[in-house]
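Annex B. Sample input.
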Amino acid sequence: MILAIESSCDESALARFDPTRGMAGEWVHSQIDLHKEYGGVVPDLASREHLKNFFPLLEAAGLSAEPGELRQIAVTHGPGLAGCLALGIAFARSLGLAWNLPVVGVNHLRGHAYSPFIDLHQRAPEAYPQAFAELLPHLGLIVSGGNTILFQIDTSQELTVLAETVDDAAGEALDKGAKLLGLPYPGGPQVERIAQNGNAKVYAFPKAIAPRNERRFSFSGLKTSLRYRLEKMSDAELEGALPDICAGYQGAVIDQLVGKTKHLIQAGGYRSLGLSGGVSNNQALRAAMQGLAQRHRMPCLIAQPQHTGDNAAMIAFAAFADPSGLASEPFSIQPALRLAVS
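Annex B, continued. Sample output.
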């Protein structure tokens, strides 16, 4: 049994995972309402909230007195906000000392990379090793507020970065676009909601899809294009055009994500496609990736909604499924930790 601790940003989260039975419990405290009035995450406030929330979460998990069946503690050690990561690691180490349990560091991004496989394990834990092997090599896309990464897991379970953003991440582009449009935080879901009533073909935005041989995403030009367009519109014009603008802007983000993914599928014999990260909750993106996988006759594994944001379940699962990516003591916080060496 593994206890996982996640505190990379503004979610305080714990999870218990049993390799023989699956996820045994998840507990999360969200800080979204606290940070809304500031229009984004305030690092000092986020750190303070972690300090307040970890022990109540531990009590809710039934672990305030003794470790029970726990045999390992896994904690996020990067990437993320330095103060938030430090609090999570200090909490993990205090529990490790009190309960005489080993503590390992988990890469938050590798947690995202493996999160689409949680449901596969949950359905049949005993069959997971063979079922996972049959899906390799795997092509995965992580899309969040801070990262846009295409990666592969090969048949030897080595993880390699294939393409990533050179400027804004896709989620960051959606949030910044929402801010330009005057929409409240968090902006990405607001853009998605309004876009449902819009026509993506009314306003053309640059898709900036790099040539096949260029392994990169770029979204900063998209945001600039939106700003220039809004400067030419009155408030009344914007109000009437808002659904179409949101639909076109969101569509340009998705087209670039799907376009680069399609290029890499065509380049090499992958047996499965994965989607994870906070932006993977976007229903239009999910549908586009599922359609892409269907056209190439491969399964599409998408992280469950509760495992797309900052959650401890993916940290626990990565500690089990990705032992080569673990950091053993002594390890330190790594706010700029990468998914893998490109």
